[in-house]
Amino acid sequence: PMFLYDEKKYIRGNMYSGLFQGPLLLRFYRHVFTGPRSWEKGKSAGGKLARGLLNKLKAPTPRTIAYVAIMTRWALSSATKWELDDQGFNIVEFYHNIIVTFNKRIDWDSNYELNRKTEMWIKDTLRWWQEYVHDIHLCSMRY
After folding, report:
1. Using CA atoms, how far apart are residues 117 and 7, in angstroms rounded to an integer?
2. Closest by alpha carbon to 47, among 115, 143, 128?
3. How far apart are CA 99 and CA 66, in angstroms?
4. Angle at 37 between CA 31 and CA 41, to 5 degrees
5. Which Pfam families is this protein grouped with (predicted)?
C-alpha cells in the first residue's frame, strides 16, 4: 500500500526507496507508541504513560512498524469491524510480509551485491526510524 512510502523518496522501479517512511505511517506510530499529541512538536501533557514507555520500547522494531502498518491500513479501509481477512486483504499475510522484508538474510549463493544492498537498506531504515523516534523522546512522553 502507498501509505507505507514517502512519495518524495520513492523511485519508480525501486520498491525499497521510501518504503516504511510514509508520513501517515509515521504519524500513526507516534500516536500509538508515544501518545496522541506527540506528533505535535512541544506538545506533551501529564497523564497516562505512552504505550512505548509502558512496554519498555527503546527503539522501533520491525514488529512495531508492522503492527502500526496493520492499524493504519485498517483505519484507511471502509471496514466497520476488525477481521483477519478484511475485504480480501489478508492482515496476517501483510504483517508477515513486513517482518520478512526486514529479516532478509544474505544468501551467499546468490547475488552478493543485491543482498548487500538489501542488508544496508534494512540497517538504514531501522536507523532512520530510531532517529525519528529519538527526536520525540520516546521514553518520556505522557498523554
Report:
1. 21
2. 143
3. 7
4. 110
5. DUF6698 (PF20414)
Residues 6+ apart with CB under 8 A from 85: 91
Cell numbers for 92, please give them. Answer: 496476517
Per the CB < 8 A criterion, the answer to whether 33 and 64 are in contact is: yes
> Largest Cα–Cα distance of the chain, in whole Å?
54
The cell numbers describing 77, all together, are 479501509
- Contact status, residue 28 vs residue 75, Cβ threshold 8 Å: yes
pLDDT for 34-81, tens place per residue? 776 665 555 555 555 555 554 567 788 899 999 999 999 999 998 888
Write out the three cell numbers for 121: 537498506
pTM for this prediction:
0.78
- What the block records as the C-alpha cell of 112 is 552478493
Q: Are strands 85-86 and 89-90 parallel, antiparallel or unpaired?
A: antiparallel
* 134-137 contacts at long range (C-beta below 8 A, 24 or more positions apart): 136/30, 136/34, 136/38, 137/34
- Single-letter residue type at 95: Y
Burial class (CB in 10 A: 0-12, 13-18, 19+), 22: buried
